[in-house]
Amino acid sequence: MASTLDSYVNNTVSIITSDGRNFVGTLKGFDQTINIILDESHERVFSTTAGIEQVVLGLHIIRGDNIAVIGQIDEVLDSRLDFHTIRGEPLGPVVH
Q1: CA 64 to chain centre
Q2: Exposed e or buried b for every residue in 25-54, given b needs 16+ CB within 10 A?
Q3: How far is CA 55 from the centre of its chain?
Q4: Which residues have C-beta within 8 Å of that of residue 32, sequence separation ≥ 6?
Q5: Hey, which residues does 38 pair with through a beta bridge?
Q6: pLDDT per residue over 28-65, tens digit each?
Q7: How many CA atoms lie within 13 A of 64 on its CB side?
Q8: Pairwise CA distance, residues 51 & 92, whole Å
Q9: pLDDT at 92
Q10: 85: which DSSP letter?
Q11: Banded model confidence at residue 72, pLDDT cuts 50, 70, 90
Q12: Pairing state of beta strands 36-45 and 12-17?
């Protein structure tokens, strides 16, 4: 996985954690245990009654053992989304 992450450095990524949280930011670095450093990051909080809230975090570190999924974001497509009108169920935690 680490070799795949090399191509994501300095690009915008979305990270879903095992407790169901969604973080978006610029991947600045990672280590052998996939601890992640995000810059200019925010958390996207989903709701069925209100739009997606984006909580600004800035520089943020996420422990590798808490990461479920990492994906690169298409910034052009993402910039077109109106997060105030999107509704969705919050993700639940990963169940083993």
Answers
A1: 13
A2: bbbbebeeebebbbeebbbbebeeeeebee
A3: 12
A4: 2
A5: 27, 60
A6: 999 999 999 999 999 999 988 988 999 999 999 999 99
A7: 10
A8: 18
A9: 85
A10: T
A11: very high
A12: unpaired
* Cα–Cα distance, 93 to 96 (Å, whole number): 10
Contact between 10 and 69 (Cβ < 8 Å): no
Element (H, E) at 78: helix 75-80
CB within 8 Å of 74: residues ≥ 6 apart? none
Give the pLDDT confidence score for residue 19 in this predicted structure.
93
| 4: enclosing H helix or E strand | helix 2-6
Statement: residue 2 has pLDDT above 70: no
Stated pTM of the model? 0.89
